[in-house]
Structures are given as structure tokens and as C-alpha cells.
Amino acid sequence: MLDYPALAALAEVIRRGSFEAAALALRVTPSAVSQRIRTLEDRMGTVLIDRGPPVRATAPGLRLAAHLDQVRLLEAGLSMAAPERPVLPLAVNADSLATWVMPALAAVPGLVDLTIDDQDHALDWLRGGLVAAAITSNSRPVPGCDCLRLGAMRYRATASPDFAARHFPDGATAASLAQAPSLCFNAKDALQSRWAQALTGARLALPMHRIPASQAFADAARLGLGWGMNPELMIRDDLDQGGLVDLAPDLPLDVPLYWQFSRLTGPALAPLTEAIKKAARAALLP
Amino acid sequence: MLDYPALAALAEVIRRGSFEAAALALRVTPSAVSQRIRTLEDRMGTVLIDRGPPVRATAPGLRLAAHLDQVRLLEAGLSMAAPERPVLPLAVNADSLATWVMPALAAVPGLVDLTIDDQDHALDWLRGGLVAAAITSNSRPVPGCDCLRLGAMRYRATASPDFAARHFPDGATAASLAQAPSLCFNAKDALQSRWAQALTGARLALPMHRIPASQAFADAARLGLGWGMNPELMIRDDLDQGGLVDLAPDLPLDVPLYWQFSRLTGPALAPLTEAIKKAARAALLP
């Protein structure tokens, strides 16, 4: 059996970023925290915390902390004795976090520990047990996980009216798209390229700004830095009021989203799963 | 002299996340891109791209790509011949990105490549040349960089009225803060703890949700998940309209922000520096 008090010390150091803060949370001295973690490292035969600065978890340290989260979640599901407040580690894609998902998270009785899925890692995190569940555009099955389709998020190719008039006087074409600055969330964000290919039939190399935050990405479109695929949920008012224009109203891009969750902790997650499904039904396309 | 066409191939692969997309942007075949990078790796004696999946830069690869950005920026400063559109790599702290900084970036003639500073890495990035400039709360001098004070961002301890009534019926005290869920941006976000200590005089271990996105963090406060330090710029309307309450109107927390930029590329950055200073004067406290 693992040494759970030592795991608790490890998890607090990781979450709070220092031995002092962890000690405070656990009501022990920093040297006791340090001692517990050293003993745990000896037993596991590997370094769990990179002492830094900054203090940071190693990969095995992260896995152990996530394991503790799952054990606590299972304990909470027992409904016996007074449970500690469980911490629920979730991965959520940035645009869902910025639009429809927060109210559902308000239904969680414990504390949420969110990680933003950049569209690529959520499944690795699930597989490694670093998160208990994920809202992701990735439907690939993960061993030990169930996958529910939540609906589709509709994106629209949008730009400010000035930007559209300047760069797309004759509409968006292969030639104008090859010149006009686009917005890109990060290197994994292929939505702009996919849409441009759907529109023109050509694979285009788009000039691009990189704006890795959902709200700032929409702001960049409003301010005329570039055109980009924005979630309809986020920019409906801008379209209605003319702050943004839709470059091709008959060519939205629909991205299916999935709720992938560990079968082991699934029963403990059931109330959250219901809240997520309900919020998705209200916000997403079927 | 470095092989700049090969560096350009490297940079495109990193920014676009695949050899195919880079080839498209450079109008060569994917195998030509691959060949250029292999030759460059042989000459540098190190792996520059982790072929993945996902395709990703190694640390030396990132440094070389950033070097290319700087060379292009200097070229743009020459104002001779028709310059390529320079890419400006910047680090910005999340709350500035969510509030006051985007309009200033709209003044940049080239393309911006933003990285979100989680308060800890911006100086390393500057030192390593991975970004040309940073908006950061860190004033530590970086060799080869200039540091301008931009002003202070005012944070207010805020919660929904229901949350405040339920968890802080007698106001926020050491006892109630030790029980009430707080919001935390990430492990480096000490604002809540600092404020709680300023209020109570005690170092407290706050129970916390982790919400690593500025807008979602404010939404979490509005929805009653927890209390947290929100930028006044972001939640002024909520306070005016009663959607959020200030837990201690006479105890805001002011965080000074700095514009740190490479002295080498400083002249090329001058128009942006002016735009940033002007926007900061309008939005931040002196």
C-alpha cells in the first residue's frame, strides 16, 4: 500500500508550488513535508519533485498526485464518514471553458482543478490518470474510459468590417487568404486552414498571428488584427451588432466535442456528467 | 554564418506544427523541408525538431527559431527593400491580455506571436531570446534588456453576493477564509494568499479551485464557485451592477507591471513600445 499521508504532502506541494505553502495547508512544518517526500522518493526509487526554483512536479510525481485525486474521488463516492473535499482534475478545451462549460462546473460539490486542453494532450492525460475526465474534440477511445458525444461547437470565419473591406473586397478567395493575416490559437489549431481549404478547395499557407487565449483571440478579430474561426457562442452579439462580419455565412465549421471520463471514477462523476450533458444540450448543436 | 533558408524552414515547422504545412508556406516539397532541417541539425550537432507526433521544437530548435525572428525584426528596422512581414514574439501576462493590451498590439505592423506568461518564465524566455519583449510583473533586470514600469494593475477580492453571504456572513476572517473555496489561476498565483495575509495578518492555507484562464476565472467568481482576486478592469461592471461584491473595498492589491524588451531589437520595437506605454497609461494605475 502506498504511503497516503506522504502522497498528500506531494500533492499539496505540486498544487501550491512550494514546501512552505504545503506545510501550512497540512499544518506541519516544511521540514516534515520535505521528509515525507524524500521518504516517498526513496521508496518509489525516483525523483517526484524538481526542487527548482520553481518547484515543479516530475512526471512520476504528477502521476502519483493524480492517483491521490482519484482515490479521494472514490472515497467521496463511498458517502461514508465526513469526506475530505475531493479535488476533481479535469481537462477542458479552451473555447468550451470560455463559453458554455463553467455553469456546469458550478454544480461540482468539491474543488475543480482545470487544465486547458490544447487539443492534443487530453487523451494522454486521461491515459496517464492525470485527469479524471476531459471535454475534448478528440473521440479516439482511451483504454478504461467512456466517451460521450456532447454535440458540436459551431465556428464562424469572422473579421472586423474594416478588415474584411480592406483584405477581402471581393470576398475571401485563395489569393486574398494567402495575403490577409489570420489568427491562430496555437500550432495545433488547424481550424483556419481547414475552413480556407473547404472554401477554396486549395491548401493555403495562411499568414498568422498566434493568440493563445480564447477571449483575446476574439478581441483580436474585433480589433482588426486578423480574421479567425470564432465560436458562434462567443461572437453572436458581435455579428448581430455589426462589430464582426461572417466571411461566409453558409460555411460554418462544426467541431464535435466529447466527454471522455475514466470508467473507474465514472460513478463518482455521475452528477457532473449529468450537468455537463445538460449544459451541452443547451449550448451546442446536436 | 547560419543557413537562413534552413532556419526559415525550421521556424515554419515549429509555428505550423507539421512539415507539410511548412512546405506549403515555403512553396517547396515536404522532403525539401525535411532535408534542410536535417542538414541544419547535422551542422549544429543537435536535434532541433522532435518528430513526434506531435511535431515539436527541442530547446535548441526554439532558440534558433527565435533568433530568426530577431534577425527579421532587425531587417524590418532597416527599412530597405520590401521586408518580409516580421513575426514579433511577445510574452504577456494573462490578465493584461484579457483586459488592456490587445488594442496596443493592433498597432504592430507585422504578425504577433504571443506566449502567455504564467508569471515565472517570461524572464527566462527573454534571456534565451525566445521572446523579444514581455509584459510581466517581474522587474528583475535581464542582461541585454531594458525595463520600463508600465503602472499597476489593481486587483479586488471578489465573490458573488450569494457566495459572500454564505461563506462570509461576518466578513472575510481567518476562520472563514480557511473554509471558503478560493480561486487560483495556477500554482504560481499567490494573489489570493497575499491578500488573505494582508487582511488577517495570518498565513492561511486556502482551499482552492484551479482555473487557468482569465475570463473563466472571473466567470467562476460570478457563478459562485469561489472568491478570487480579479482585475478591477475586468469586473468593474459586475461590481457596479451587483453581480460581484468586493470583500474589502479598502483593501485592493496593486501589482506593478513592466515592459521588458531586448535592447538589440528595441529600436525596431519603438512604435510598439509607444503604443504599450499609451495603453498602459490609460488603463493602469500610475
From TrEMBL, chains A, B:
This is Putative HTH-type transcriptional regulator/MT2039. Pfam families: HTH_1, LysR_substrate. One of its GO terms (molecular function) is DNA-binding transcription factor activity. Belongs to the LysR transcriptional regulatory family. Keywords: DNA-binding, Transcription, Transcription regulation. It comes from Paracoccus haematequi. Residues 2-58 form the HTH lysR-type domain. PANTHER family: HTH-TYPE TRANSCRIPTIONAL REGULATOR ARGP, TRANSCRIPTIONAL REGULATOR. The keyword DNA-binding applies. Coiled coil: none annotated.
